[in-house]
Amino acid sequence: MIAMPKINYIKHLREVESKNITEIAKIAEIDWKTAKKYADKDQVPEVKIQKKRGMMYQEKWGQIVLDWIDEDKSLKRKNRRNAILLYEGLVEIGFEGSYRTVCQYIKDNEKNSTASESYEKMEQPPGEVQVDFGHTESVMEGSLVDNACLVMSPPYSNGAHSVPMPAENQECFMQGLIKLFRYFNGVPRAVRIDNLSAAVVTSRGQGKEAVLTDEFMRFSHYYGFQVQVCNPYSPHEKGHVENKVGYVRKNMLTP
User: Fold this and answer.
1) Is the whole model's pTM more than 0.90, yes or no?
2) How far apart are CA 137 and CA 239, in angstroms?
3) Of 23, 59, 73, 188, which residue is least crowded by CB atoms under 10 Å?
């Protein structure tokens, strides 16, 4: 069986470059019949899916676990049932399998869910920045105290700058942005943030847009930049500044 990339190449030669079957057979180094088969017919290799066996798949138990996991998605992460609680719940209703069986089923389900997820390519146009707080320590009057460090990074140019702030409240966040705007000698077109309580009242999720605080909304209107709020638990959506926070901490703020 020919691999899918080669099939796509054969279809490309036929449909885009208008090659005849003889030319395709020569270019792809295959016989004439095979070239004809894949060039002129919608041939998609069959993927054999092996049916999984076991009590979690062939009986009701696996579906019960999936239902419980789905129910818990509406709860905060710390309130969701872990594998032990899921196993104990199954035992209470007659499950005779082992804890290891339940764990393996949950692990397999997580792999399948991850494999089916798709991500859009992150575009990083000029004039857009990512902002995030980092944490560090400093010495004040002989004692170590926690400090916040506001980092701004424009991914397009791979730059970054940071300003230390005493806290992560709204006043410090907006004052830190003003200092960063002055450093960059301008205001970006868009600022991407996570669900900071200093700027966001209601986070994104379940098809809903984030709701900004009135103060931060007026702040963004005054300076004329668009606010982009990341989805919950999606650090990859502002991965550039996440890396810069770590870089600043390790290279500039670590003794």
Assistant:
1) no
2) 23
3) 73
The 10s digit of each residue's pLDDT in 167-177 is: 889 999 999 99
Token pair in block for residue 208: 């809903």
Q: What per-residue string of b and e applies to 171-196 under the rule 16 or more CB within 10 Å gives b?
A: ebbbebbebbbeeeeebbeebbbbbb
Tell me the CA distances in angstroms from 42 to 13, 21, 23, 25, 160, one per residue in order.
14, 15, 19, 17, 50
With beta carbons less than 8 A apart as the criterion, state whether 248 and 149 touch: yes
DSSP 88-149: HHHHHTT--S-HHHHHHHHHHHHHHHHHH---PPPP--TTEEEEEEEEEEEEETTEEEEEEE
Residues near 170 by Cβ (< 8 Å), separated by ≥ 6? 198, 199, 213, 215, 216
Segment 24-37, tens digit of pLDDT:
888 888 888 888 88
Supply 121's token pair.
């390519």
**CA dist 68 to 85, 116, 196, Å?**
11, 20, 30
